[in-house]
Automatic annotation (TrEMBL):
It comes from Dermatophagoides pteronyssinus. Coiled coil: none annotated. Keywords: Aminoacyl-tRNA synthetase, ATP-binding, Ligase, Nucleotide-binding, Protein biosynthesis. This is asparagine--tRNA ligase. InterPro entries: Aa-tRNA-synt_II (IPR004364), aa-tRNA-synth_II (IPR006195), aa-tRNA-synth_II/BPL/LPL (IPR045864), Asn-tRNA-ligase (IPR004522), Asp/Asn-tRNA-synth_IIb (IPR002312), NA-bd_OB-fold (IPR012340). It holds the Pfam family tRNA-synt_2. GO terms for molecular function: asparagine-tRNA ligase activity; ATP binding. The lineage of its organism: Eukaryota, Metazoa, Ecdysozoa, Arthropoda, Chelicerata. Gene3D superfamilies: Bira Bifunctional Protein, Domain 2, Nucleic acid-binding proteins. GO terms for cellular component: mitochondrion. Its EC number is 6.1.1.22. GO terms for biological process: asparaginyl-tRNA aminoacylation. Belongs to the class-II aminoacyl-tRNA synthetase family. SUPFAM superfamilies: Class II aaRS and biotin synthetases.
Length: 482
C-alpha cells in the first residue's frame, strides 16, 4: 500500500516536471553546475558521474556524493525514497556510475552551496562492493595499497587533486615560457648520447632483433632512452636563442628513495647569449613563484585539501613568502663541517640527500641555491671558472625533496670543452660528440640552462613525501605495473 502511494506521488511529480520544466540543461560537468547552475524548480539539469563515499538515508531521502573529476567539490545528490523504491537499491554502491536528471536547490548544509534534487536516475555501471578495495579505504591516504592499485588510484579524492594540479602546472609552465618568448621544441626520447655521463641509461634494441655484433644493432650504434634533452636543446638554442621542452626522461638508477623514479617528467630550458649565473637563477626563481601563484589561483580548493591532509603543509608558506637564499658549495661545506667531518677531508664530495636536508634545516627551510661546485664532480658540459677548478652551476634545494632544479652556464670555449670531455672519459671516441663540438666551432655564444623536476616541484608544493604518490603511473626498480 505504502509502495503504491509512493509510486503515485512520484508519477505526479514527474508530470509536474514535464509540464513546467520544458528544457533539460546540460552543463557538461559538475564543476560547471557548481559554478554556473541556478537554483530553480523550473529547470532540470542532466549530470553524469560516479558515487563516492557513503550512501546515507535520512528520513524520507537518500543522500550521496557524485563526482566526475572536474572539481575538487562533489555534488550532493538527494534522491527521494519514493524514487529509490522504483529502482534496485542494491545497485547504488560506492563507485557505481550514474546519469541523474534533476533540479538545483540551495543547500541547507554547510559543506556545499547547492544540492541536486534528483527526479530520475539511471545506473550506467555497477560496482560490486565485495571486491572493490578502493571503496573500503578509510582516509584515501593508504599509499602502499594505492601503489598496488594504480589503475584505480585516480578514483581517490587525494589523487584526483594531485592530477588536477599536475594539469594546471603543465598549463602554467607553457604559459610562462610563451610569455618570456621561449619556443617549445620536441626532443627525441631515443638518443645515442648519455649527456650526464653517469652511465645510468636504459639501452634500446627491438625484442625480435638478435644482437650478434655491433654492426647488427637496429640503429647501427648503441642507443638509449634519453636521460636529458639538454644537448639537443643546445643545438636548437644555437638558432632560436630561447628554447625549452617538457618531456619524460629515464634514469636506470637503483635508488628506492622517495625522490627517485626510473621515468619522470622534466622541464628543460636553454638560452643563448647568457653571460652570468645570476640571470639564470633569477629566471628559475621567477618561474617558481609564477607556478605557485597559478596553482593557488586556479586550484585553490585542491591545494587546500592536500595541505590540510599533509603534515608538511607548514613548508608552503616558506615557499610563498621566503626570499630565495644563495650560498656557495664551499660555504655549504663549512656550514656542515661539524656534523659531517668528511667534508673537511674531501673538498670534492657531492652533497647527499641527508646533507641537503641539513642545509635546509639550518636555513629554516627556505629555498636555497647552492652554487659553484667542484668541476671534478660535475658533467663535462658545465662551464668552469678560469682556473678550471669550479663549475659555474647551481642546485636549488627546497623542503621535502631537496634538489628540485639544477642548472649551469654551458662551456662555450671549444678547447676547454674538448679537454673536459677527455678528462672525464665521457665517451670512448670524441668523434661521437663532433656534432656537439660543431656548436662551438660555428658562431658559438655563451649559453646556459637548467633542468626543473616537474614531479619534485609538485611534491614540494603539495607536501607529499614520496614522489611515487604524485605521478600517475610511477616506474621504479622492480616495479612497472601496467
Amino acid at each position: 500500500m505504502i509502495s503504491s502511494i509512493n509510486s503515485i506521488r512520484y508519477r505526479f511529480h514527474q508530470f509536474i516536471c514535464r509540464r513546467y520544466c520544458h528544457n533539460i540543461r546540460s552543463l557538461d560537468t559538475i564543476r560547471k553546475i557548481l559554478d554556473y547552475g541556478q537554483p530553480s524548480d523550473c529547470y532540470q539539469y542532466k549530470v553524469y558521474g560516479w558515487i563516492r563515499g557513503k550512501i546515507q538515508k535520512k528520513k524520507s531521502k537518500w543522500f550521496l556524493q557524485l563526482d566526475d573529476g572536474s572539481s575538487a567539490e562533489r555534488l550532493q545528490v538527494i534522491i527521494p525514497v519514493s524514487l529509490m523504491e522504483l529502482n534496485d537499491r542494491s545497485r547504488i554502491q560506492n563507485g557505481a556510475s550514474l546519469e541523474c536528471i534533476g533540479r538545483l536547490s540551495e543547500s541547507l548544509g554547510h559543506q556545499q552551496s547547492l544540492d541536486f534534487l534528483c527526479d530520475q536516475f539511471t545506473v550506467i555501471g555497477d560496482c560490486p562492493p565485495d571486491h572493490y578495495q578502493i571503496g573500503h579505504l578509510k582516509s584515501g591516504m593508504e599509499f602502499d595499497l594505492l601503489r598496488e592499485q594504480i589503475h584505480l588510484r585516480p578514483r581517490v579524492r587525494y589523487f584526483q587533486s594531485i592530477l588536477r594540479i599536475r594539469n594546471e602546472l603543465s598549463r602554467a609552465i607553457h604559459k610562462f615560457m610563451s610569455d618570456n618568448q621561449f619556443i617549445e621544441v620536441q626532443v627525441p626520447l631515443i638518443t645515442a648520447n648519455d649527456c650526464e655521463g653517469g652511465g645510468e641509461c636504459f639501452t634500446l634494441n627491438p625484442a625480435n632483433w638478435p644482437i650478434t655484433n655491433p654492426e647488427r644493432l637496429y640503429f647501427g650504434r648503441p642507443t638509449y632512452l634519453t636521460v636529458s634533452g639538454q644537448l639537443h636543446l643546445e643545438a636548437m638554442a644555437s638558432s632560436l636563442s630561447r628554447v625549452y621542452c617538457l618531456s619524460s626522461v629515464f634514469r636506470a638508477e637503483k635508488s628506492m628513495s622517495p625522490k627517485h623514479l626510473s621515468e619522470f617528467l622534466m622541464l628543460e630550458l636553454e638560452q643563448a647569449f647568457l653571460f652570468d649565473l645570476k640571470t639564470l637563477m633569477s629566471l628559475v626563481e621567477s618561474l617558481f613563484r609564477y607556478l605557485l601563484d597559478e596553482i593557488e589561483k586556479n586550484c585553490q580548493k585542491d591545494l587546500e585539501f592536500l595541505l590540510d591532509m599533509n603534515q608538511h603543509h607548514k613548508y608552503y608558506d616558506k615557499l610563498k613568502s621566503s626570499k630565495f637564499l644563495q650560498i656557495s658549495y664551499q660555504d655549504a661545506c663549512q656550514m656542515l663541517s661539524s656534523k659531517y667531518p668528511q667534508l673537511n677531508e674531501n673538498k670534492k664530495m657531492n652533497l647527499n640527500a641527508e646533507m641537503e636536508r641539513s642545509i635546509l634545516e639550518i636555513c629554516d627551510h627556505q629555498p636555497i641555491f647552492v652554487t659553484n661546485f667542484p668541476m671534478e664532480i660535475k658533467p663535462f658540459y658545465m662551464k668552469s671558472t678560469d682556473d678550471g677548478t669550479m663549475a659555474q652551476c647551481f642546485d636549488l634545494l627546497t623542503p621535502i625533496c631537496g634538489e628540485v632544479c639544477g642548472g649551469s652556464l654551458r662551456e662555450n670555449r671549444l678547447e676547454r670543452l674538448v679537454e673536459q670531455i677527455k678528462s672525464k672519459n665521457v665517451i670512448n671516441n670524441t668523434n661521437q660528440l663532433e656534432w656537439y663540438l660543431d656548436l662551438r666551432r660555428f658562431g658559438s655564444v655563451p649559453t646556459g640552462g637548467f633542468g626543473f623536476g616537474f614531479d619534485r616541484f609538485l611534491q614540494t608544493v603539495c607536501g607529499v613525501v614520496n614522489i611515487k604518490d604524485v605521478v600517475p603511473f610511477p616506474r621504479w626498480p622492480y616495479h612497472c605495473r601496467l
